[in-house]
Design brief:
Layout: E1 2-3, E2 6-13, E3 16-21, E4 32-35, H1 44-51, E5 55-59, H2 68-85, E6 91-96, H3 98-109, E7 114-120, H4 136-147, H5 152-157, H6 166-171, E8 176-181, H7 190-203, E9 207-212, H8 226-235
Parallel strand pairs: 4-5, 4-6, 6-7, 7-8, 8-9
Antiparallel strand pairs: 1-2, 2-3, 3-5
């Protein structure tokens, strides 16, 4: 089995589906990316990074809402990859859409395992959906189930979401590469990407953002990742 022409290894880790994709050549630090959700979706960035010698890994989540159990599993997975394959303990988290929920929660809980966050149209709160998105009720039911909430009110008053944890990222000086669509009708760009950008800039923390003014939630990423990758390689910890 391969991934964009690169060797792909599928296995089980802690009773979860796991994937490791090998570059054709390694960089000296054995650096790697962790796709935090939606493995295989919009893979151009990952393929470009694999071509530069980065590994790519994925660990299946129990849900897409960034719960602590999933973040502990990612920490253990990073240790496993370090011990078995010699990969650097720190990874680049690739978080698209709800993957941003996982990426920020993981980085804020285990900052020593993250060298940079690449976030693309990230969702950062339970209530960050655009008003034009029509399935909020189904998402709320997912959130209740993931966190064990019994009522919708518990969802709305919960105050330990990724948007509330940005201070931990800036305190640890974790760089962010942020891409988002200015016309996103699914994940509201103002209350998610926009708030992250504003907070990082106010704190003087390392961030570069790319707004695609006419872009909706999809497609994620760019056809040409040269500028994005140059920034990432210049600032990653």
């Amino acid at each position: 089995m391969d991934f964009c022409g690169f060797e792909r290894i599928d296995f089980t880790f802690q009773d979860r589906e796991a994937i490791l994709v090998l570059p054709n050549k390694e960089n000296e630090k054995k650096e790697w990316m962790l796709k935090t959700e939606y493995f295989g979706a919009f893979p151009k960035f990952e393929a470009d990074m694999l071509a530069k010698g980065y590994y790519l890994a994925y660990l299946k989540n129990n849900n897409r809402w960034g719960t602590d159990e999933d973040q502990r599993a990612k920490r253990d997975f990073a240790e496993f990859l370090h011990e078995k394959y010699g990969l650097n303990r720190k990874c680049i988290c690739v978080g698209m859409s709800c993957g941003g929920f996982h990426a920020v929660n993981f980085a804020s809980r285990y900052p020593s395992y993250v060298s940079l966050l690449y976030l693309d149209a990230p969702l950062l709160s339970f209530y960050g959906w655009s008003d034009e998105f029509g399935n909020k009720k189904s998402w709320i039911e997912e959130q209740k189930k993931a966190y064990g909430f019994k009522t919708e009110a518990e969802v709305y008053v919960y105050n330990d979401l990724p948007i509330h944890r940005l201070h931990t990222l800036t305190e640890n000086n974790i760089p962010v590469a942020l891409v988002y669509g200015g016309s996103d009708k699914v994940v509201d760009p103002h209350t998610n990407a926009g708030m992250l950008k504003e907070y990082y800039e106010l704190q003087g923390a390392p961030i570069r953002s790319w707004c695609k003014p006419e872009c909706d939630h999809h497609p994620h990423g760019f056809e040409d990742n040269t500028d994005l990758i140059e920034y990432i390689e210049s600032v990653k910890l």
